[in-house]
Amino acid sequence: MKDSHYDVAIIGAGMSGLAAGIRLAHFGRKVCIFERHNAPGGLNSFYSIAGRKYDVGLHALTNYVAPGVKGTPLGKLLRQLRIDREEFALRPQKQSRIAFRDCSLKFTNDFAVLEAEIAEKFPAQADGWRSLVLAVKAYDDVSLDAKPLSARKVISHHLTDPLLIDMIFCPLMYYGSAQERDMEFGQFVIMFKALLLEGFARPLDGVRVIIRVLLEKFRHAGGERRMKCGVAHIIEEHARASRLVLDDGSEITAGQVISSIGFAETMKLCAPPQTSAAEQNTGKLSYAETISVYNRQPAEWGWGDDTIIFFNDSDRFDYSQARQPVDLRSGVICLPNNFDYGSEQLPEGIFRVTSLANYDLWAHLPEEIYQAEKRRWFGEITRSARRFLPPVDDAVLTTSQLATDMFTPRTIRKFTGHLNGAIYGAPQKIRNGRTHLENLYLCGTDQGFLGIIGAMLSGISMANFHVLQGSAGRS
Amino acid sequence: MTKDNCKKLVIDIISDIAPDEDLTAIKPEIRLRDQLQLDSMDFLDIVMELRKRHGIEVPEADYGQLASLESCAEYLTPKFVAKA
């Protein structure tokens, strides 16, 4: 296999790796994506159990804007990948909520709704809110060399009410922060725009629609993909990634290597390994998620309005590593039935709940205890979330229930390879994607563009910046 | 290859890169950036599509020559002719 040479090798067939691959193959690079699993999608994937299809990762595609709105990440992504908007078949959310013990803020894909809610519930913060929104809009969040700033510090110049500050941080952290208690301001801006200034949408058939479009574009552009074929080592010679050793022991070479598997995960593949660099920047925030499938539509229980609910019942919202297996104080509810599918609807009711969870407390349980703990926490998580929904009798839910599933930090580790099951990767992002090796770059979660649109833009940006741009005008 | 043909080829490229833009009323003398929402990523794509489709190379120092449809035609037509 010594003759397997590529212009560019990409590690990982998630959203960012596929997007990078499409760009490179479209412009004639010989490119191959190496994926350890049999399914593409990475953190955002799908699976079937007993003939029933499940999404994992994606609650909602963020950064949604209506057709005709230009200059936002969604539009850039569609142009760069030559995707027709209709191919994603996005259906907008109805409405969502940030629900704290004594206060609730409704928001939709129309930012004016949130602004009116804040004006009504936090009148004393109105001026500060306006100045924060202006600061967010003015910030260059896609800069590849911005200095890191504490979002808490920046926000304290605008807002003073700790409840409002917590309520704004809650959705932004849950949907993308790898850092405890604070966010880098650039990350805050990306998420603020993605969730609040732009909005949520989803294809009727879920994340698989998006992955299929990406796979088809990649194939059509001439890209090659090797599934169930991970990269075991990145061999360093003369400060370059000279060869990749694959899981099956064979070797390939590539002019450039783009890794989407995470910073620490990539550093550990390097031979010699960059152990201390990896250890200094490994994430530890992980999640558990429950999925309940019902033979009724949630609307029949009065659960028909909210698409996503970010909830918290502690005095201060505390986004940090869970001290128990699951931190029940806060979480996110997703009701995929509550996107506006027009005359269509999902055939079954789906109720998903995500909460912070502790990797170490799940990682080493013997299988039998692990299964028992999953059952126990499944009940705890769903009960915790139901406090923020109109009440429904336990018996009604039980008799309507068709299936359940649950993932834990251990599941995330197994299927994504992320150390500690760290869902959003490393706390410090590497915006320019550079590593200690001159032809090895990062894209995806640890490059730092967030959400699935962000992940795809990350792959695009790194492919452009490190591979295509340098040679665009070269004769 | 006439300048008009050249303009058409450039419009073909832009319509593939930015299918959401209305290209029917482009004024050739006015900068593309002032009539269409095109960012630096889109301009990079125009350069790369020129090479991919037509084998035309535009060095970075000459990117300014692609500002308007007219200046594109002025700059690119001799390159197309040389290729033919």
Q: Give the radius of gyration of chain A.
A: 22 Å
Proportion of β residues of chain A?
15-25%
Computed Rg of chain B: 12 Å
Taken from the alpha-carbon principal axes, the silhouette of chain B is globular
Rough outline of chain A: globular
Can you write the helix and strand succession of chain B as a string?
HHHH
Main β-sheet of chain A, in a few words?
Answer: 8 strands, mixed
* Estimated helix fraction of chain A: 25-40%
User: How many helices of chain B does DSSP assign?
Assistant: 4
Span between N and C termini of chain B?
A: 8 Å
Number of strands of chain B: 0
The chain-level mean pLDDT of chain B equals 94
- Biggest interface, which chains? A-B, 23 and 22 residues
Structural class determined from secondary elements of chain A? alpha/beta
Written account of the structure:
The complex is a heterodimer of chains A (475) and B (84). By secondary structure, chain A is α/β, with parallel strands linked by helices. Chain A has helices at residues 15-26, 73-80, 85-88, 111-121, 126-138, 151-156, 162-174, 185-198, 207-220, 263-269, 275-280, 359-363, 367-386, 394-400, 409-416, 451-472, and strands spanning 5-11, 31-34, 45-49, 52-56, 90-92, 95-100, 103-107, 201-203, 224-226, 231-237, 240-246, 251-259, 270-271, 286-294, 306-312, 330-334, 349-357, 401-407, 440-442. In chain A, strands 1, 2, 9, 10, 11, 12, 13 and 19 form an eight-stranded mixed beta sheet that branches. A seven-stranded mixed beta sheet of chain A has the order 7-6-15-16-17-14-18, sandwiched between helices. Chain A has a two-stranded antiparallel sheet with strand order 3-4. By secondary structure, chain B is an all-alpha fold. Helix content of chain B is 58%, strand content 0%. Chain B has helices at 3-17, 32-35, 40-54, 69-83. In chain B, α1 (3-17) packs across α3 and α1 (3-17) crosses α4. The longest helix of chain B is centred in the N-terminal third of the chain and has 15 residues, at 3-17. The model of chain B has no long low-confidence stretch (mean pLDDT 94).
